[in-house]
Amino acid sequence: MLKAIALSCIRDDRILFAELSFSLQQGQVLLLEGKNGSGKTSLLRILCGFREADAGEVLWCDERIGSAQYHADMAYVGHLEGIKKELSVLENLTVALALSIPGRYSIAEALAQVQLTGYDDALVLALSAGQKRRLSLARLLITQRLLWILDEPFTSLDKQGIQLTQTLMTQHCDQGGMIVMTSHHDLNLPGVDVQRIRL
């Protein structure tokens, strides 16, 4: 459903990648690998529609990305968690839910899944870095997004948090979801078809 055709990206007169093509179907994960500065985040930004490719195109269901439908089907979690630090945990998730189609988890169920039960009224300012990362995962669970685009999703997580995140990712793929991600950590997603591209 997601297809990249002959993508090229140039930054500061340096070619990060050229003629890059791939396709991703439901239930699959695409893992982007490479050293810092190789273009992984730039590619994610192109896939999100935040940046234009210097050449090539990205298709979603055989149509160029940028439509309202694509943005309704896609969720992005980058280095910044996309949460408001001045709001509480519950307020952040309530706002996210109001802007999206509800997913299969209620807010309470999502908080339980990411082990933040009891933190409803806690201000995000008071959360640890790992808890903020788990809150951003809860946001994914409460909204109905087929495609997750994740930039280093294991950042700031301990071993238990990494395992939890991988479990949620596996469940998402088992339910027909798809993921494009970068990571410097080993990936353990039993039964999931993981494609790898090294930039």
TrEMBL record:
<keyword id="KW-0813">Transport</keyword>
<protein>
    <submittedName>
        <fullName>Cytochrome C biogenesis protein CcmA</fullName>
    </submittedName>
</protein>
<keyword id="KW-0201">Cytochrome c-type biogenesis</keyword>
<keyword id="KW-1278">Translocase</keyword>
<dbReference type="InterPro" id="IPR003439">
    <property type="entry name" value="ABC_transporter-like_ATP-bd"/>
</dbReference>
<dbReference type="InterPro" id="IPR027417">
    <property type="entry name" value="P-loop_NTPase"/>
</dbReference>
<keyword id="KW-0067">ATP-binding</keyword>
<dbReference type="GO" id="GO:0016887">
    <property type="term" value="F:ATP hydrolysis activity"/>
</dbReference>
<dbReference type="GO" id="GO:0005524">
    <property type="term" value="F:ATP binding"/>
</dbReference>
<feature type="domain" description="ABC transporter">
    <location>
        <begin position="2"/>
        <end position="199"/>
    </location>
</feature>
<dbReference type="GO" id="GO:0022857">
    <property type="term" value="F:transmembrane transporter activity"/>
</dbReference>
<keyword id="KW-0472">Membrane</keyword>
<dbReference type="Pfam" id="PF00005">
    <property type="entry name" value="ABC_tran"/>
</dbReference>
<dbReference type="GO" id="GO:0017004">
    <property type="term" value="P:cytochrome complex assembly"/>
</dbReference>
<keyword id="KW-0547">Nucleotide-binding</keyword>
<dbReference type="InterPro" id="IPR017871">
    <property type="entry name" value="ABC_transporter-like_CS"/>
</dbReference>
<dbReference type="InterPro" id="IPR003593">
    <property type="entry name" value="AAA+_ATPase"/>
</dbReference>
<dbReference type="InterPro" id="IPR005895">
    <property type="entry name" value="ABC_transptr_haem_export_CcmA"/>
</dbReference>
